[in-house]
Structures are given as C-alpha cells and as structure tokens.
Fold each of these.
Amino acid sequence: MGLLLNIEKDHKELDELMLVFETFKKNSESFIVNQSNEHSKKLSVELTKDFEMEGENSDAGFSATNFQQKGFNISFDISKQHFELQIAGKHNMENAVAAVAAASQAGISLITASEALKHYEGIYRRCQVLGQKRGIWVVDDFAHNPVKCAAAIRSCQPVSEKVLAWFQPHGYTPTKFLRADFVKEISEALRPEDEIWMSEIFYAGGTTTKDISANDLIEDIKQTGKQAVFVADRNDFLEKAQSHLKEGNVLLLMGARDPSLEQFSKIIFENL
C-alpha cells in the first residue's frame, strides 16, 4: 500500500520532498493522494483511488461533503454514506477520509468504515479534551508546527466564541526557520476575540545558538492586529491568563517534544 500523501505547505525543501515521494510512488503497488492539495495531486496515479474535500474534484473516488462540527464531534458524508467521529476539526475529517480511502483498497466497505470510525475516540494529545472546569473546556494538543497549530485553534472555535491558546515552541533553529510561517498561520487562524499566549522555547540540550525567543513570534503576531501575550515561564501562565478566561471559553494547550507537557496540562486543568 502506498503513502496517503498530504503535503501541508510549500517549504523551501518542497522540490526535494517531491522527489522522495516520486521514488516512493515508483516502489508502491498502490498510491493514494489528496486531490485537494495542490502539491500532492501532481503525484496522482488513479483518481478513483484518491480522496478530496468538499467536492473540489468530483472525479476523485472518495469525496467528503457536508462537514459539520457540534461541540468536539464532527460528521460528514462520503458517497452518501454518513460518518460521525468523536473528535474535532476539519483536518480530522481529512485524516478520516484518507483512512477510508486506504481501507477501501483493503476491501473494507464504506459502511464498515463508518461503523468503526463512530467508535474512534482519538489519540493521546491530539485535541485531547481533559474536561470542563468552571465552565471552561481544557484541550491538550501535540500541535507543534505552524499548520498544526492553526488547525488545532480552528478545531476549537466551533465550541466557543473565544479560544485562548497557549503554545510552547521547541528548538531554537526550527523556531527561527519557521518564524514567518508561525506568524502567518496562527494570525490567520485567530478570530478577533481569540488569544495566543506563548512561553519560552523548549531547549532539549545540545549545541545551538539561542538567537530567537518565543516573544519574537508574539511581537510579530501583535503587528497583525491579533491578541498575543508572552509569558516567559510557563509556570506563571495560568495566574496571568485566569482573568482572560470566562465560562464557555476553550483553553487550548499546544506543544511537543517536551515530555513534561502532559503533566503540565494536567496541572493547568487541576488548578483552573
């Protein structure tokens, strides 16, 4: 079975990346791509095996339509077969449709796939709802690159009129390299009432030049007109953010690589 290719963004390494997937395609018996992505669709082998979102390419074999989100649950249709999942976000519909397309190649029917996905509850630290306290929903998410942070924010927006998102970037070099992308993606995802908070970049050790701060991203986001706050020490975050939260809001906690993030999120929830 080939790769379910869904390249998220056009980075400088795109040409090299495409060559890698071209090689992978040549060595695959079956290859499925996302026709809704301008880059991946160029690698299409057979449209009837591919998938797409919201009728963007009616010739694709698996087309997702009628997306809806109620709370943290989503629903959509594929070829008149209804699907319901206990996870949030349009990006998770995309992931599900990719899985359905792959399952179909293994002989799994849409009805069977729909029944299986109905009981799927997501995975650890992927839009993981820790619970609701004082009327505030707390969500823990592994989001760590620009596109995933934006997707995590958007997945919480149907739940509340305000999302207060906190993010801890990791790695000085990756953060510096993706600075413009972080600013663009997060700024575009935030609504006027939403807020993005960041704590200092997680350092895992090794040789590096600490020539960027999470505050640089925050200042850049402020320049776009969106609400952004820097709190260097994450242990000070909840105390400073408390007054910005009210009943019905979503508190979204994002970050990766740092093994203590799971415990940090639990502490935030317990002390909210």
Amino acid sequence: MNYPLNNAKLFGCRQSMDLAIAIADKYGATLGKVNFSTFSDGEFQPSFEESIRGRRVFIIGSTQPSSDHLMEMLLMMDAAKRASARHITAVIPYFGWARQDRKDKPRVPIGAKMIAKILESAGATRIITMDLHADQIQGFFEKPVDHLFASSLFIPYLKSLNLSDLTIASPDMGGSKRAYAYAKVLESDVVVCYKQRQKANVISHMELIGDVTGKNVVLVDDMVDTAGTLTKAADVMMERGAKSVRAICTHAILSGKAYERIEDSQLLELIVTDSIPLKQQSNKIRVLSCAELFAGVMQSVQNNESISDNFIM
C-alpha cells in the first residue's frame, strides 16, 4: 500500500512535552496519544493509543539526565518498532551524554557512542538533533543524522540588537571554531578564553586572549551547565574593559547553583533555546523557541525535500 506523504504521526516524551506541542503546532498536526503506566518502584511503560502501522513516526524528546528521559525515548521507539511503524525518527533537541565523546583518560567509556548504538538498536531509522557538543558524534551513528544549528535562531536575534563594536567570544579553546563561525557571519572580532579546570565544573584559572576594551561582547557556547565558565568569563571581560557581556547557549542545562550564579553575574543577558525546559524563571534569561526550526526540517524529511536552507553555518 502507498501512503500519502503527509501520513506521519508525532509523539512527545513527557520531559519535552511543551516543546513537542509547539513543534506539532508549527508542523500543522496534533500530538498522538500515548499512555504511561507507572509501577510503584518507578518503572514505567508507554503505550501508543492509536495505530501507527506503516507510518513515519516522529518521537520528540531531549535526553538530558536523569537517565529516565533517555529510557522513555528508548521505550517509545521500541514500542513503535513493535507496532510496525515504517520509519522511526528520533527528534532529540538536546542529545544528552554528548560530553563523553572520546576517551580523555584511561578506563572511561565513550558514552555518546554507546547512546548512539542503543538508539539504533531500539529502532531509530533517523536522528534529528541540534548543536551537538562534538560534531563527530554524527559519525557514531550508522543511520542518517540531521544536525541542526541554533545559529539560525541566534544570529537574527543578535542582528536585531544592532550592537556597535560587537565582539564574539568563546568561553574556552574548544569552542573557538563555533565563535569564529559566528564572527564570520556577523563580521565581528573574536576573543577566546583559556581556562584550566581543577576538576569537572570547577575552574582554577582563566585568561583572556584578545582585546575587549569598549566592546559589546557575546559569549557563544553549545550548553550552559553550572554557569561557572560563563559567569567567570563575563567577570573577566568586564574587568578588562568590556562595555557589556551577553551569552548565547543552545542548551540550558542549568544545574547546581547556575541560576544563582547568573543572577549575581555581570552577564547582561543569557539567550537560550527551549531544547530543555527551564527549571525556574529569570529576568536575565531569554528563551528562543526552536519549534519552527524542527517542524520545518521534519516536514522536509517527510516530503523527501532538501533541508540545506535551514542552515546558516
């Protein structure tokens, strides 16, 4: 039987339900019905309450810790596979565990590689994600990966600010490639922070490579976790004579004392996407929705159309 091109079903994981609803609205559809049964010990079981036989299924959910979020995505994909879905596309705005993309010391896992294999084993035939922590994670998959860039959201916003003396900054050496890509589009200068860590999430020393005197600085990163690096970088730049410091970070993990650090910092504004829902509101945090970006790419995937127009960088 030949199915029409619009014959897709969209489902949302509970941890990303608000974003899934927004994506479905931009897609021009409603989310499918999923029922969750929960046992006393916390074990849960999803159940699709409508037929998906022969359909393309989009399952929308970020996989930030806790591991229950990843498990929910896996169980839903396995259920779709066993319900005879034709294609199962995992829409993962934030790909969790991505910081484990290599062995940086002996006897540690490459967690991102393991997660990629688990997703494929559960039934994923395609992955759509955004701003991976490391580009090479795409190569961990044997299935197609559409790696979207939040720059298509951030760059128009930065242009709307009409900032004079704009300088793009990377909060660490690893993000310099991203900073240079933004600077090329915005025709601005670049500075880089060099940091030394005492241990994970703890910075012992930070130096600034470049001049920020009299500049409106925008720090660029793929995620903000404890906000220690960003707030430290903002303080250093203001000490070095910057006019203002903003930050754009795709994924707002914001754990530990992140909200407190941001409120107490010299950051004028932190701009993030809704790939991860905020745990609390802050006057310093502005959220740009990625729903339209994902919905457009999902429509193109469903209709076998090119998605190259969705990329700025």
Amino acid sequence: MNAPGPPPQPPAAPPLLVVMGVTGSGKTTFGTALSRRLRVPYADADDFHGPANIAKMSAGIPLDDADRLPWLRAIGTWLAEHRAGGGVVACSALRRRYRDLIRERTPAVSFVHLHGDPEAVRRRVAARPDHFMPASLVTSQFQALEPLEPDEHGIVLDLDSPVETLVASYLAAASRTPSRR
C-alpha cells in the first residue's frame, strides 16, 4: 500500500502581467506568446491610446504625463476586469509612477521587463515602418526608463532572447514565486 502524499495544491491563480519595456523591445510578440501559453487574454497598450496621443507620437513628439494618465488608468482597469481569469498587457510602463498608477487598480499585477541594448532596439524600430512610434523616440524612451525597484513584483528578461526562451524563463521564474493573490 502506498503512503498518502501531500494534499493536492489548489491551482495557481491566473497571473495578471504587464510586459514592460521601451518601444521595440518585443512586448507585443512576447506578450502574445505568453498569453497563449498561459491561456489568458492579451491586450496591447497601444490600443488604449486616444487619437490625440497617437497623432502626437506619430509626429515624433513624446507624450507627457497628462497624456499618459487616462491611458495608464484604462490599462489598470482592463487588468482589474480580468482579475479572476488572468491577463497579459504589453505596456511600456517606463516609470515607477506609471506602474504605481496601474497598481492602484490592480495591486496583484506583476511586471516582466524586456530589457536590452539601445542600438538593437533602434534597429528594430527602424525596421517596422508601419508603426506610429518613430526610431527617433527610442532615446527618449531609454532616458525615461526607471528599472523595476526591489519592492516591485517582477522580473527582467533579455529582449535579445528568442520568444520561446523568454516564455520558458518567465514560466521558470513564476514557478519559484508564490502567488500574490
């Protein structure tokens, strides 16, 4: 007769994630792949921008905090609406105060920061002519970037890694971290 094992663990709560990083870091590609793997909905923060923000960025003008406020709140609201089933959003979330705005509506959110070489990012952005964000804004994105702080829940991954490697790295890190809900 086999000895009973430990009681089965309840399934982990589906994660609420923001894939963050500068423009061209691969947030959409990785976020989409990760959401498929986790079987949770995906949203791209670009879809939350109003026409005025898109026009400003298309003209090569960086957004200011007043432009970003309703956008970040909408992202936080989307995550809050997906609290029960989980979700992944690709969003630059470059500054701590932006991440704090998202956390106001969704305290359990975790961040996956895709980070890497600025020149590699510039090349990526220059190679996608159909996107509204010009390569000229890459420098301002890196200047604005505030890395995750020790009290922020999240991990940093190398944006130059293949998508499958990034997904595996996230899953490995998540399996070592207790659920936040």
